[in-house]
Amino acid sequence: MMDQAQSLRNLMSAKAKALEAPERGAGNAKFVAVTSGKGGVGKSNFTLNFALALQRLGRKVLVFDADIGMANIDVLMGVRSKYNLSHLLSGEKQIDEIIEKGAGSLPYIAGGSGLNSLFSLSEKDLVYFTTQIQKIAADMDYILFDTGAGLSKETLQFIMSADECIVVTTPEPTAITDAYALIKVVYGMEESTNFKLVVNRAESQKEAVQTSDKIRLVTSRFLNLEIPMLGFVSDDSHVSQSVKKQVPFSIHAPGCHASRDIQNLAMQYVVSPDAHQEGSLTGIKGFIQKWMRRTK
Fold this sequence. Notes:
Layout: H1 4-20, E1 30-35, H2 43-56, E2 61-66, H3 73-77, H4 85-89, H5 95-98, E3 100-101, E4 107-109, H6 114-117, H7 123-137, E5 142-147, H8 153-161, E6 164-169, H9 173-189, E7 195-202, H10 205-223, E8 229-234, H11 237-245, H12 249-252, H13 257-271, H14 283-295
Parallel strand pairs: 1-5, 1-6, 2-4, 2-5, 6-7, 7-8
Antiparallel strand pairs: 3-4
């Protein structure tokens, strides 16, 4: 069995590699949709703390709250957003003016009521929106979309326009079933979608792997699709405590199991190679092309 000292050495080595990994930047931000098959699995909490973990590794990250009706990224951080997407789409503000700073100085955009009109823009407004997105993509490494849970058309729009989709699930049977259902529908509509799995609230690494394997087995057998497991986050009482205090758990209790797990997961993510079909557009160009194609 690996002793504690060896485990610590491995962790420090992984962190060194993540810190040394080249940054994206230069207009090549990676667009990542974070989603789940059902609500209540901790998707938004994962998105927030994952973003903070990436930020600790020196990456420039923006969180875009894209959950229509249930937007709560600002609530989880205990802050009140002065502006949201509607102020951009109405022309009142430029995109850099609606970007707020939350816990850990994390940049985020509140969705609010503006999300509804985002899917019915005129051609002129659509060009304006994509031009604004280009402005922030030039200065970011990652843009994380915290989408709504389930299979709404709005969630599908973000997933199929992004470079990658992180599916968050828990070991609960209903969460596993709904995660597979979401993957099946998205894959049926867009086979080039790149998925990664995250198991939240796992009692152990063994349970996390077993949960991931249940999904990966059926996607491999019935969809001929291999989905990697990105990592897991332990079931930790500090997480619920942090939600009540409206402070991200990785700030509230940086030494707890969940915080260590999310940091390990971020380190693994930074050093893992991108997987895209040859010839496919990624980054800002890919996002804009796919968004405009699906908005017409």
